[in-house]
């Protein structure tokens, strides 16, 4: 069993980032809700209390059930976590006159503290808090302050307990990585042996033991997660893995054929199922985005189920689920409103009545890519932009026809190939074309045209939760627009989307 650090999550937007930064130190890290009944076994080497949108001064502020004051392992409180430590031990937390948000410098740093080994006085950190710790109980020493706050960091006089007002996990905290390393490797004494190679060896061994001679069926999407999951399963059970790749008729131009070819080059046992007509028939006349999503999700389940049952005696359903889907989100503001239902095939395991195997359920997306690299999977799979399950259906506003799909596939192809040929594909996080069902007047040669418009969408992002529009060069946009209007029959106008998320979303539907 690998050593690990546990984060108790009070709902901060940075919680997953802390976990990722700790894992970058080759130490496994798991996130649990703040009130998780944490039991310390020999694998748990340290605990982090995360930040929170709450103030400890609020009546309904979340408190951990874990007895951090008598913890057997070191504890680090970050922001809210630190305020909670101060507040619960007789210190004082007061509302600041203004929210302290952004860069600050640690004007005083106690280099005697193990947590600040190799950290220089004046180092830049990132602050984001509304309350300030103004007094600490005598149990603690202040080990850092800034020009505006007296307690930027503290440590317990005898126990291995630390609190930071700032966020070491954030990029703008220049020595943040060193500080986390000091906590994880020195204070918690983790070995740092959780690597891509060790993950693969252990996962394959675990899958072998779990699956024995059983058969597994897995749906492939052409994307990173399902591909990496398939290769791991294949390493464990070889020909007992049966993959299915469904063409829903809403994929990019040539994608079905190209992806099938790439899968066979990986030696995967894949059956391609062309169900385009079935999907398009069911979508006929449907205009509501959520209804379109539901039809596609349900049809996928039906097609997949039918195909899976052609394989005799299959007991397991493989899925490419990753960690962000697994972490129980801390609902600090009540149930969140569904903006778009992204989990299109949520009902699959229930319908199929199979046991589920999820080789990637403990990994973040960037870690899945690292595993993919280690497994020798082609960059074409690993660096591919995200592509939504419902595909082009949510990029054709309103009702879908075969002709609209064709037009969009052609325009999208010109855009994406252009990005690749100009070295821009890897610079944007996601890109695609959108079919706008508005007619506008144009002129081609001597003729008046009255045709549809295409919108180009390209964003920069790290996780799709927030995004900015990619500032693509004007020359590239001009060239792409010319090509689309000249080559794609049915389009006489191209526009570029300059909205960020929020308040817009990446997809138009
Ligand atoms: P939005 O449009 O919500 O998209 O800003 C964020 C990310 O999610 C993808 N997306 C989906 N993925 N099924 C999916 O598998 C969906 O229904 C869906 N809707 C949006 C979107 O492409 C972007 O990467």
Associated small molecules: xanthosine-5'-monophosphate
Number of strands: 19
Largest sheet descriptor: 8 strands, mixed
Indicate the proportion of strand residues.
15-25%
Number of domains: 3
Gyration radius from CA atoms, angstroms: 26 Å
Secondary-structure content class: alpha/beta
Question: Which stretches are low in confidence, meaning pLDDT under 50 for 5 or more residues running?
Answer: none
Mean pLDDT across every amino acid position = 94
Give the C-level CATH assignment of the largest domain.
Alpha Beta
* DSSP helical segment count: 14
In CATH, the homologous superfamily of the largest domain goes by the name HUPs
Helix content: 25-40%
Global morphology:
globular
Termini separation: 44 Å
Structure description:
It is a single chain. By secondary structure, this protein is of the alpha/beta class. The chain folds into three domains: 4-187, Rossmann fold (3-Layer(aba) Sandwich), CATH 3.40.50; 196-382, 3-Layer(aba) Sandwich (Rossmann fold); 395-496, GMP Synthetase, Chain A, domain 3 (2-Layer Sandwich). It has 14 helices and 19 strands. The chain has helices at residues 15-24, 80-88, 176-187, 196-211, 224-237, 255-265, 276-283, 289-308, 323-326, 348-352, 365-374, 379-382, 402-421, 474-487; strands at residues 4-9, 28-33, 44-49, 75-78, 92-105, 108-109, 124-135, 140-145, 153-156, 161-164, 215-220, 241-247, 270-274, 314-318, 355-357, 430-444, 447-460, 468-469, 491-496. The chain has an eight-stranded mixed β-sheet with strand order 2-1-3-4-10-9-8-6. Strands 13-12-11-14-15 form a five-stranded parallel β-sheet, sandwiched between helices. Strands 16, 17, 18 and 19 form a four-stranded mixed β-sheet that branches. Helix 5 (224-237) packs across helix 11 and helix 7 packs antiparallel against helix 8. The radius of gyration is 26 Å and the shape is globular. The mean pLDDT is 94. Xanthosine-5'-monophosphate binds at residues 293, 340, 342, 344, 386, 388-390, 430, 464, 501, 505-507.
């Amino acid at each position: 069993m690998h050593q690990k650090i546990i984060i108790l999550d009070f709902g901060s937007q940075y919680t997953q980032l802390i976990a990722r930064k700790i894992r970058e130190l080759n130490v496994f890290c798991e996130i649990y809700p703040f009130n998780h009944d944490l039991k310390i076994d020999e694998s748990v080497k340290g605990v982090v209390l995360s930040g929170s949108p709450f103030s400890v001064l609020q009546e309904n502020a979340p408190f951990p059930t874990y007895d951090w004051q008598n913890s057997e392992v070191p504890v680090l409180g970050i922001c809210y976590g630190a305020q909670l430590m101060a507040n619960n031990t007789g210190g004082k937390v007061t509302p600041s006159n203004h929210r302290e948000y952004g860069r600050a410098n640690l004007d005083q740093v106690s280099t005697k503290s193990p947590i600040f080994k190799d950290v220089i006085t004046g180092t830049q950190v990132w602050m984001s808090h509304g309350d300030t710790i103004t007094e600490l109980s005598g149990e603690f020493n202040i080990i850092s302050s800034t020009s505006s706050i007296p307690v930027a960091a503290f440590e317990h006089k005898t126990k291995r307990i630390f609190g930071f007002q700032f966020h070491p996990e954030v990029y703008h905290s220049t020595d943040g990585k060193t500080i986390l390393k000091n906590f994880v490797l020195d204070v918690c004494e983790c070995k740092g042996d959780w690597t891509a190679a060790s993950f693969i060896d252990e996962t394959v061994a675990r899958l072998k033991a779990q699956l024995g001679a059983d058969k597994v069926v897995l749906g492939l999407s052409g994307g990173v997660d399902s591909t990496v999951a398939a290769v791991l399963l294949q390493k464990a059970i070889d020909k007992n893995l049966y993959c299915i790749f469904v063409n829903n008729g809403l994929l990019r131009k040539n994608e079905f054929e190209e992806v099938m070819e790439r899968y066979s080059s990986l030696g995967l046992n894949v059956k391609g199922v062309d169900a385009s007509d079935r999907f398009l028939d069911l979508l006929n006349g449907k205009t509501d985005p959520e209804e379109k999503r539901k039809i596609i999700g349900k049809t996928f389940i039906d097609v997949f189920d039918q195909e899976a049952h052609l394989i005799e005696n299959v007991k397991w359903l493989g899925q490419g689920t990753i960690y962000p889907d697994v972490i129980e989100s801390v609902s600090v503001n009540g149930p969140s409103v569904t903006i778009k239902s992204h989990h299109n095939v949520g009902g699959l395991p229930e319908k199929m009545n199979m046991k589920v195997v999820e080789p990637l359920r403990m990994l973040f997306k960037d870690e899945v890519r690292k595993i993919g690299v280690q497994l020798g999977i082609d960059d074409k799979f690993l660096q591919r932009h995200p592509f939504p399950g419902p595909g082009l259906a949510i990029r054709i506003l309103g009702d879908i026809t075969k002709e609209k799909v064709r037009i969009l596939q052609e325009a999208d192809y010109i855009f994406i190939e252009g990005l690749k040929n100009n070295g821009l594909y890897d610079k944007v996080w996601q890109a695609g074309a959108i079919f706008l069902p508005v007619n506008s007047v144009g002129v081609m040669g001597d003729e008046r045209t009255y045709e549809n418009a295409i919108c180009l969408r390209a964003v920069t992002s790290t996780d799709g939760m927030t995004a900015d529009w990619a500032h693509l060069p004007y020359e590239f946009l001009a060239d792409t627009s010319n090509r689309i209007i000249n080559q794609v029959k049915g389009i006489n106008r191209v526009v570029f989307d300059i909205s960020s998320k929020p308040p817009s979303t990446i997809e138009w539907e």
